[in-house]
Specification:
The protein is mainly alpha-helical. It contains six helices and no strands.
């Protein structure tokens, strides 16, 4: 090694107890080493695998929320009066419903406080809120 600097090969002899194969052990060790070195860095570096896992969690959450938002109101347990008021206002899905503000809904024909209370309970039970920004759920896709 002394003065020679043209080495381009690293040979590692990795032995494991059999619970993990040597290649996976090396990958895991490299991840741990990188995470330890990141403690000394000012930059917020994210390992690709961490970013993928976080992205996967977000994607699953968005897919779940998209499914909820696309639910037809006729499939909900709403009174006939509330459902008819919403149909007259061309509100068919939960996404249509939560895109409105409460004040706007009270302007719908034959839509009163009782219907509003019923719909507010429905929206709350689905962990939604009125006036939601639905752009991140990309409802127009699919």
């Amino acid at each position: 090694v002394e003065q020679k600097t043209d080495y381009e090969k690293l040979i590692l002899d990795i032995s494991t107890d059999g619970s993990i194969n040597p290649e996976d052990a090396l990958k895991e060790a490299a991840k741990i080493l990188i995470q330890h070195f990141m403690l000394f860095s000012d930059e917020n570096l994210v390992l690709e695998s961490q970013a993928k896992e976080e992205s996967k969690e977000v994607d699953e959450e968005i897919l779940h929320m998209r499914k909820i938002l696309k639910t037809e109101l006729v499939d909900m347990d709403l009174s006939v009066r509330a459902l008819n008021c919403l149909k007259a206002a061309d509100i068919r899905t939960l996404a249509d419903l939560v895109s409105y503000d409460v004040a706007d809904m009270l302007k719908f024909r034959n839509f009163g406080k009782k219907s509003l209370t019923e719909i507010q309970e429905l929206v709350k039970s689905k962990q939604l809120s009125f006036g939601m920004n639905l752009s991140k759920f990309k409802l127009d896709e699919e």
